[in-house]
Task: structure prediction
Amino acid sequence: MDAEAKKLEELQRKQEKKRLEEEEEAAASKASKAPAKKLTQFEIQQSLAAAPASKAKSKPAKDADIEKNINHVIRETDEQFMAAGIEKHVASGVNEATELMRNLTASGGDSPDAHPERRRKAAFKSYEDREIPRIREENPGLKLSQIKEIIFKNWQKSPENPMNEGD
Result:
């Protein structure tokens, strides 16, 4: 019985192989069709004349499918902001954005007292320029470094010092 089973199995494999080869040949014959015949000038002219008519039929009838131009959308929103009285600020780039954020706050800008440490150096310089001649008159024998020490001590208590304004 083993011999019969082997023969039967081998016969089935041969039939399967033959069937696959036939399918392959059929697919290959479909793929290798004869080349298209050469078009004449008349046929080319006819196809060109028919092309615009087919394009007109295939055009979409709805304008809703077309996406709006982003520049028009931006312009319309700008006009709406202007009509509502809202000021719009635009910054492109990191430097411009940081400068814009520095200039703008929720309250409309920094108050001069918000950051007294920013004004301290300039205020001290003007105080020092004004006080050096006065201290020299009072103490003519002092060196410049000693005069500056006295001025700095006075500056620490002075109402002109921006750091003392909050006290």
